[in-house]
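thought: fold this chain, then report.
action: predict
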Amino acid sequence: MNEVALLILLLSAYILPVVMVLNSKRTQGHEKNGWLIGIIFFSWLALVMYFAIVPKHGHVKKKGKKKKNT
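observation:
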């Protein structure tokens, strides 16, 4: 039974970073897909890089002036 518990613990530790990025509002679209691929291959190292590189508040849309059609 110990082997099963260890396997579940290791599997959970591998899947946790993927779930964290999927639920994160920091990225969206293809950027999130790229981070997910990195996390699948490099797990915790990529998760640390994700939190260090990606802005905490996510994407902020710039409010620009609308052009008037004349």
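thought: worth noting. The chain has one domain: 2-53.
final: tokens above.
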